[in-house]
Amino acid sequence: MGIFLVSHLAGGIKLKAYISQHGVQGEVTLEQHYDERSIQIETTGLVRKVDTWGDLWHWSIREFPVEYTRLEERCTDERLGKQLVNLDSILGPLDLNQTSSHSIDNDLLPLTGTNGVWGASLLLENDGDRTIRVCATLTVAGSGGIKLAEARFYAPLAGSIYFEWVGFSTLSTTDAIIISDLKRLSTNKFKQTSDHVWKIFVTDAFEAERAVIIYK
Question: C-alpha angle 33/15/78, rounded to 5°?
């Protein structure tokens, strides 16, 4: 398993992936300074601890975060969603025998914003057997500037919708993501999906921090 961490630097944003799965251990770091457009990628801390798998790995960033409650098949295409960024096409495959440092344009790998990659997942696939996968979620480290809310449903829809906000003071920006993990509870086998109008209702000023999502 692995976890992507975002930290607030004095001069920008830093994402760090801590990985320990299938004998692959270490860190991958993505960093952007507030006055630069380029993203610095460091893989110097990533190593292979066992000889079972080869050193060459394909890497990409996928749409959804990792569902860590699943012990098996958490890194499948079905779980991680579509590919957002193919790092192979930009930097080539990841070779664990070589320490590497790369610089790429923010347009190719935005960390925040509409097409930003925090809140998504990093996927590594072994070159010799691409069923051997390592995946990590992009999340925010520390407590400063981070807010998280969950709306939980039981019927006729079951599951949760998650809201996460993070503020980057050095960049004077706030970023947010919404993750929906809902299932329809229905005995009608011919209707597996449904469309709903959704709204957020805020109470009066004395309870401004409370909100409820209404589905209908």
Answer: 135
Domains assigned to the chain = 12-140 (2.60.40.200), 145-215 (no CATH)
Q: What angle do CA 151, 153, 157 make, to 5 degrees?
A: 130
| pTM across the whole model | 0.76
Instruction: State phi, psi for 98 to the nearest 5 degrees.
Output: -120, 125
3-state DSSP assignment of residue 167: strand
| CA 47 from centre of chain | 22
Residue with tokens 């409820």: 212
Question: Which residues, listed in sequence order, are joined to residue 159 by a DSSP beta bridge?
Answer: 153, 182
Give the HSE-up count for residue 74: Cα atoms under 13 Å, Cβ half-sphere: 17
What is the dihedral angle through the alpha carbons of 204, 205, 210, 215, rounded to the nearest 10 degrees? Answer: 40
Q: Give the tens place of pLDDT for each residue, 81-137.
A: 999 999 999 999 999 888 778 888 878 888 877 888 888 899 999 999 999 999 988
What Å distances lie between residue 19 and 9, 28, 159, CA to CA?
A: 21, 8, 28
